[in-house]
Specification:
two-stranded parallel sheet; single chain; transmembrane; alpha+beta; membrane; 203 residues
Amino acid sequence: MRLDSVDRGRLIIAVVAVVALLAGLWWASRDDATSQPPAINGDMLGQVDESYDQYVERAADTLATAPEGEKAFGLVTFAEPLDAAQAGELTAELGRVNAMLVGFSAPMPLPEPVGGATRAEVYERQFGAVADSLAGIGNVPVPRELTAVIAWDEPEAFRALAGDGRVAAVEMLPPDAVWGDFGVRPVEVPGVDMLEVAAPTAG
């Protein structure tokens, strides 16, 4: 179904509102030690000036050459958007999940599950926080699916995920990369509408 000019305009406004909110949540969550601009140290996760196939190949190389037994940050990009329950089940065994990505949004930092909570519940609470923040703005669509997560663990844990059909790519940074001092760009998986994920239209 094609959108007319009015609907398209509303969708664009909604997308801008949601993406701006998600970016705001990211910056608001950072403490004084990491609130300054990221250090220019060359560390970057995600697709940068390359095709999807080139990125997948490069990401696989970082995983293959990651030092054994040394924990580091990694970007796990899903083959298709996953809801909180699906993402929670997929990432349950990771040592730590630091942030989640929703389409073109900035990474949204996440706490670790406590008191018997699951990762799925952590993701669900984050979506709830986004919904609460959007309440009162108007008829703005609320995202309900993740497209990627940033995690911290040993290469073996990331390699286990790389072999899962629900995962499109896994990229790892060097072990000396510091949280807050590396950039993150989303990976555009073919067939995934990143704007639709961030601001879903009514079905």
